[in-house]
Amino acid sequence: MDADFKDEIKLLYGISVNDIAFAKNQQWKITNYVIAVYVALFGVWKSVVVDPNVKHLFGIECSFFLLISLITLIAGIYLICIDQGLLERSRGRIDRIVKNFSEEFQGLFQHIDTKKRSNNAYAVLVTQISIMILGYILLAYAIIQLS
Q1: Domain coordinates of the chain in residue numbers?
Q2: Fewer CB atoms < 10 Å away: N or C end of the chain?
Q3: 0.90 surpassed by pTM
Q4: Mean pLDDT along residues 68-87
Q5: What percent of the chain has pLDDT over 90?
């Protein structure tokens, strides 16, 4: 391998690692933002419901808040799944790049169980989706109970 090729491989490896870090960070930010939107919706709902100057809200207002929170849930799940695709592509790229590294590095890299790594990534994804779904269920329950 010539020096230019080694430099290109190192650069591509670094980009892939940065892509993974970025996507994981984005997934957690999206999860947090979804929960923040739920909290904001609940705060608005509660302030309107407990306001003595506001007449009891009808089903259409309740349905509107539930629809907004459902759209938030769907958008959040969609966005973290997009980031999961970036993660998978970057991890695949790293696996292909490693084949161009020295035999010593490849030997060390083989000790990383890529199947276990992939399963852990999906466990985190399922956790994030579960957090968003649980938040939606709790918000929907609270809105319905306060109506």
Answers
A1: 3-146
A2: N
A3: no
A4: 96
A5: 46
